């Protein structure tokens, strides 16, 4: 746990005493500098940031794989979509550029030294963290939770070894270049953070970097457990939580623990939402689960993705994890952590789902080919 005290005008004495000796303009300059710095790094509302660095309610990044049908790319290009847009657009930035949406969102920590602040808190988790060896003791889940006393963001992604430790600055790992990846960032008011923290207990995430100042701890007992690396308490098999973004948009958070042994897509999400799902996950041949039509609602594997451009690529070059309802009327889209393969039935993790029509159209139109039963 890290704390820091930002300087106060009180340490310089009152403005009145300096005015009398001609230092009033100097004190005013310090005052405005303080307001600027603290407005940027101390008390500013934390939120997802777009490509221009402005706050947005949510954004989604689809990082393109290096190997596409008919071409080989950089492995760093990405499609971008946020709450102010109607469809994907190719970003003018590469994903390793700190001026893109991801870099802008994490600047509070990286550029603003926010990781030293006692007025904000954050949690980095990844089953394959940077600089550390992989361990299968944890949930198959990756993300960032960053917030202050006003609001914060929950960033869910599929990228191993990301993000870097805050003191090392923004960087994109080499392991994140070859395959496609997805990132979902949603801005939430502080009142939603305890619910997200409770979901993370089900996830059993590998927390590799965390700052949770004392002021936040009474509300967030779940994060205290995770940040201290304490033995995980027993939690029931799974939990569904309704979340509301800062601008009032509804999301459903599905969180499954290691005690619920099943494919999250087939056994829970499709049946709970009462829709047939088209699923895109990274499947290894020796462990992949076939499309499933044994339950009332079916789960069908996507095999080829098409994004604007057009950009075409096969599922086996895509490490992202998402699904959409097959029928256009339902308009469900989910992004998250788990793959459709046998070993992941024993893994904890989750999905965040939305009925936003823009998100649905973007992903439903990306389905180029899927395997029926």
From TrEMBL:
Reactions catalysed, as given in the entry: Endonucleolytic cleavage to nucleoside 3'-phosphates and 3'-phosphooligonucleotide end-products
Keywords, sorted A to Z: Hydrolase, Membrane, Transmembrane, Transmembrane helix
GO terms, biological process: apoptotic DNA fragmentation
Record GO terms (molecular function): deoxyribonuclease II activity
Enzyme Commission number: 3.1.22.1
Chain segments annotated as transmembrane: 21-37
Protein name (database record): deoxyribonuclease II
Annotated organism of origin: Scleropages formosus (Asian bonytongue)
């Amino acid at each position: 746990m890290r704390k820091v005290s930002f300087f106060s005008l009180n340490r310089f004495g009152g403005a009145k005493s300096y005015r009398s000796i001609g230092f009033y303009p100097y004190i005013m300059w310090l005052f405005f500098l303080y307001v600027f710095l603290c407005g940027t790094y101390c008390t500013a509302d934390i939120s997802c940031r777009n490509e221009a660095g402005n706050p947005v309610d949510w954004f989604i990044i689809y990082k393109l794989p290096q190997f596409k049908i008919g071409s080989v790319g950089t492995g760093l290009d990405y499609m971008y979509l946020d709450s102010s847009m109607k469809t994907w657009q190719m970003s003018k930035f590469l994903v390793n550029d700190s001026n893109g949406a991801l870099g802008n969102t994490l600047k509070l920590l990286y550029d603003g030294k926010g990781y030293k602040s006692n007025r904000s808190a954050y949690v980095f988790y990844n089953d394959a963290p940077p600089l550390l060896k992989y361990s299968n003791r944890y949930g198959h889940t990756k993300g960032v939770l960053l917030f202050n006393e006003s609001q914060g963001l929950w960033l869910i992604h599929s990228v191993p070894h990301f993000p870097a430790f805050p003191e090392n600055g923004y960087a994109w790992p080499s392991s994140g270049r070859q395959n496609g990846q997805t990132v979902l960032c949603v801005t939430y008011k502080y009142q939603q953070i305890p619910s997200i923290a409770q979901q993370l207990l089900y996830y059993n995430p590998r927390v590799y970097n965390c700052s949770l100042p004392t002021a936040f701890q009474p509300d967030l007992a779940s994060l205290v457990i995770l940040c201290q690396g304490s033995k995980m308490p027993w939690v029931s098999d799974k939990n569904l939580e309704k979340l509301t973004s800062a601008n009032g948009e509804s999301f459903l958070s599905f969180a499954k623990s290691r005690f619920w042994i099943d494919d999250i897509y087939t056994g829970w999400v499709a049946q709970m939402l009462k829709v047939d799902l088209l699923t895109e996950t990274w499947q290894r041949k020796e462990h992949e689960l076939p499309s499933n039509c044994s339950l009332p609602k079916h789960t069908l594997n996507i095999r080829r993705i098409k994004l604007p451009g057009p950009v075409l690529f096969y599922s086996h070059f895509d490490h992202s994890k998402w699904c959409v309802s097959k029928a256009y009327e339902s308009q469900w889209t989910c992004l998250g952590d788990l793959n459709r393969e046998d070993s992941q039935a024993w893994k904890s993790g989750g999905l965040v789902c939305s009925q936003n029509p823009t998100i649905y159209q973007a992903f439903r139109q990306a389905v180029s080919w899927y395997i029926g039963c």
